[in-house]
Amino acid sequence: MEMLSAEILSWLTHYGYLGIFCLLMLGIVGAPIPDELVLTCAGYMIFKGYLSPGLTAASAFTGSLCGISVSYALGRFIGTPIIYRYGHIVNIKHERLDALTAWYERFGKWALLFGYFIAGVRHLSAFMAGTSRLRLPVFAAFAYTGAFIWSLTFISIGYILGEEWTWVAEHLTAWTWVSLMAIGVIAILLFVRLQKSRRT
């Protein structure tokens, strides 16, 4: 983790805002890039005075927006057959796709809003939205709002932690990440149930 953090820090130091944009766009489409670590690192660089808060947030948001839009377009115009055939290239197995399809069908557009906070879900939730022919304005309202909240959250974490951000990244075990994802799923379930109870 320490080596990965150093590599991301070096990349962002060299490429700055363009690096943030490209890494997040590719990561959300499906490239094996630790998106949260990129955002947290960007927040740390704001803390150090190397990056501007406004431009960093704008780069992160637009990169996330472009990535999630590409995933939506792939789902809408290509569909699931291409993923079943070539998904193994980006580590998407049939079982995982089936499980996420069922998950999306249950939570629908809310998966776009909160799926960013669950590893392996954000890019596939947009893909599922595309295959289900979710209208573009609805997709944009939920997915782009989620992109803004998610990117700002992790940039803020890196900024607030300051010099401690690498220590936290190194000491987050796999079980800690699992626990955080479980908490996120529970929060989503509670929010969706609250919305349904308000409608009835």
TrEMBL record:
This is Putative membrane-associated protein. The keyword Membrane applies. Residues 33-159 form the VTT domain. Signal peptide: none annotated. It comes from the Bacteria. Keywords: Membrane, Transmembrane, Transmembrane helix. It holds the Pfam family VTT_dom. The chain crosses the membrane at residues 12-33, 54-74, 141-162, 174-192. It comes from Desulfomonile tiedjei (strain ATCC 49306 / DSM 6799 / DCB-1). GO terms for cellular component: plasma membrane. The keyword Lyase does not apply.
